[in-house]
Q: What sequence folds into this?
């Protein structure tokens, strides 16, 4: 049975992250402003190829080396010793694609794009999801279309420390090194001891804002990459998750870790905020069992 509203968990917000550039480095923050389409400043910038298709660490791991810091009229980018500022004050637009979504985005000027292309040794363009750009998806999971930036599928990603601890115990038992939470490029890390409890959380409240956990997050090769260098090194979370986190639901194939979430209000959350459980699912997400 669903729990009564506002059941306090023994859980608090342990970390908050924004990723200004899709597939670029994360920035840890002490507080985050929440909009209906996610954290302010999260995944608002993106690199695309000459045809306008999005580029990520999946095919270009060195994007992990790019730090993006939003500014009033654009973004400041750093890669190694190289720096670059891009503004989006003009009328340059570009039609871009993120999976099945088509977005009319603001585009950086030719000089900026040429510099970034030289950094990455391939032709790229930098785009920005400004106030004119619109994207929504996920109605089949979130009951109605959710506004979202350049994230893969939903406004936010929630993970827990207990589940990471369980994964790392599995990796160690496989003679592999433990991994950090940064491998999972999450927005909200909840300090909660029990592993995989989030499978049963339908909605939580943090800082007075409701977050609906709508879909488990299927994980890809990016989790095998060091998030400072982009190198595929250290423990392999995919191999560890296959032991007990292989989805048995065809709608979400592969291994899963964390939950995609949709905020149902706006405001600000901060490190240390208590997490309250608003409702639960009747059963866990189905997993394939080994052996």
A:
């Amino acid at each position: 049975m669903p729990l009564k509203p506002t059941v306090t968990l023994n859980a608090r917000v342990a970390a908050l992250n924004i990723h200004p550039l899709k597939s670029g480095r994360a920035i840890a923050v002490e507080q985050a402003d929440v909009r209906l389409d996610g954290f302010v400043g999260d995944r608002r910038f993106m690199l695309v190829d000459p045809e306008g298709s999005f580029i990520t660490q999946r095919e270009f791991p060195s994007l992990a080396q790019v730090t993006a810091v939003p500014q009033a009229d654009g973004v400041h980018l750093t890669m190694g010793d190289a720096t670059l500022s891009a503004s989006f004050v003009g009328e340059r637009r570009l039609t871009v694609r993120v999976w099945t979504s088509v977005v009319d985005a603001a585009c950086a000027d030719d000089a900026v794009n040429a510099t970034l292309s030289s950094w990455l040794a391939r032709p790229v363009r930098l785009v920005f999801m400004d106030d004119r750009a619109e994207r929504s998806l996920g109605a089949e999971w979130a009951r109605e279309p959710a506004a979202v930036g350049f994230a893969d599928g939903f406004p936010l990603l929630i993970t827990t420390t207990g589940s990471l601890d369980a994964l790392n115990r599995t990796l160690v038992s496989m003679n592999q090194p433990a991994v950090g939470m940064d491998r999972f490029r999450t927005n909200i890390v909840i300090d909660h001891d029990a592993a995989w409890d989030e499978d049963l959380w339908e909605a939580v409240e943090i800082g007075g804002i409701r977050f609906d956990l709508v879909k488990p997050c299927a994980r890809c090769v990016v989790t095998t990459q060091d998030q400072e260098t982009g190198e595929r090194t250290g423990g392999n979370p995919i191999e560890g998750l296959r032991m007990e986190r292989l989805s048995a639901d065809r709608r979400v194939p592969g291994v899963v870790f964390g939950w995609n979430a949709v905020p149902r209000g706006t405001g600000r959350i901060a490190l240390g905020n208590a997490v309250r459980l608003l409702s639960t699912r009747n059963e866990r997400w189905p997993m394939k069992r080994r052996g």
